[in-house]
Design a protein that fits this description.
The structure is a single chain. The chain contains 14 helices and 6 strands. By secondary structure, the chain is mainly α. Strands 1-2 form a two-stranded antiparallel sheet. Strand 3 and strand 4 form a beta hairpin. The chain is elongated, with a radius of gyration of 28 Å. The two termini are 42 Å apart.
Length: 370
């Protein structure tokens, strides 16, 4: 496996600062205000440190450029609550900016103080805005950023090698995905590539878990088949201890859905930048558990084959029908509430072209970034 490294000859460093300037220009590092600079919040992924030895006038100075050290066992990874900081197979410590919630714990854990927090939105002098590097994503306010070892250049080298037909090492070939899909992934910014890669690259663990859940699902379907064939008495619902088990599950799942709706509403009203992933999770949980809850009364029916009589012979005075209407509306509204904010992300997957373009074209509903 490739392990990257950088060699810096400290004996030849004159503290000219050219490496700092080149790093800032290459990686779209924002310029902070003079007030923030006075508070030691200047952003510099590569910074030349100065060490003074001796006492005046017999003093000597040593200079050493300090990038991210790409630790073998990074403490910043262990403390991140959402795995926004990670280390890849090549030993490069990266940062997934869309996943970062801005807790700043990793900055406190870094022994070299090379992680920087965006207290404000990124700004550049007017003369620099037209020269930003299109291969490097611009970090928004409220997230941590750090040196990525110019990961985009490594990816570009692999892409050029493939285009020229040069043989790559096994670890550089990536996975067995289609070459055109792999090429599209390589052209993406590192953070976007990490987020979208699971769409086209699935680990063995996923199939193991999916197989186990599939087995449980088949077991449940077989149990329901026995219930339908031999009657509800097969389930034990005719015993006083078990008569309400399905209804208990119904109440439980609907209650959980309310919790998901409440969490999502609070986080959206607060408009916090860090709440996006939590909000999406809460909204997805709401839709899933409403579906699970709605299934419970159907399973509890003695004649599920007559389910559509609820529509064809509706008795609106029945409280049970009120439940059907309210849960149906609740499920529909929650699904729309989940789907609409996902449209820009679905459009991004559509535009990337890495997975089922027809499906994501349909799901994106013609959305275009303004």
């Amino acid at each position: 496996m490739t392990r990257w490294g950088m060699v810096i000859d400290l004996d030849r460093c004159t503290a000219c600062g050219a490496c700092e300037l080149a790093c800032k220009s290459e990686n779209n590092i924002a310029t902070v205000s003079p007030e923030q600079a006075d508070m030691d919040r200047t952003m510099s992924w590569m910074k030349v440190e100065v060490e003074v030895e001796g006492e005046f006038p017999n003093t000597t100075m040593r200079f050493y450029p300090r990038p991210c050290m790409q630790c073998d066992n990074p403490p910043c990874i262990r403390v991140c609550p959402v795995e926004a900081t990670y280390i890849n197979d090549e030993g490069i410590v990266g940062q997934i900016y869309p996943r970062c919630i801005g807790c700043r714990y990793c900055a406190n854990a870094c022994p070299y103080t090379v992680k920087y927090f965006n207290w404000y939105g990124p700004e550049w002098p007017e003369s620099e805005r037209q020269h930003l590097n299109p291969d490097v994503s611009v970090r928004p306010k409220g997230v941590i950023e750090k040196c990525t070892f110019c990961h985009h250049r490594l990816q570009k080298a692999r892409e050029d090698a493939r285009a020229e037909g040069r043989e790559l090492r096994e670890e550089d070939r990536g996975n067995e995905m289609k070459p055109e899909v792999a090429a599209k992934l390589e052209r993406m910014p590192p953070d976007e590539r990490v987020l979208l890669r699971p769409l086209v690259e699935t680990s063995r663990g996923f199939y193991v878990v999916a197989g186990l859940l599939g087995a449980v699902t088949l077991w449940g379907l077989f149990a329901y088949y026995l219930q339908v064939r031999y009657g509800l008495g097969r389930t034990g619902l005719n015993r006083p201890e078990y008569w309400g088990i399905y209804i208990i599950c119904f109440v439980f799942f609907i209650g959980i859905s309310h919790a998901g709706t409440l969490i999502s509403a609070i986080l959206r009203v607060s408009k916090a930048e860090w709440r996006r992933s939590i909000t999406r999770s809460a909204e997805l949980i709401t839709v899933l558990v409403i579906g699970f809850g709605a299934i419970q009364p159907i399973i509890d029916l003695g004649r599920p084959d007559r389910l559509f009589n609820v529509l064809f012979n509706a008795q609106l005075r029945s409280p049970l029908l009120w439940d059907v209407i309210s849960i149906g509306l609740y499920f529909t509204a929650s699904s729309i509430y989940l789907y609409v904010p996902l449209i820009p992300d679905l459009a991004r997957i559509r535009d990337s072209g890495i997975k089922a373009p027809r499906l994501y074209t349909f799901l994106a509903a013609g959305y275009r970034d303004p």
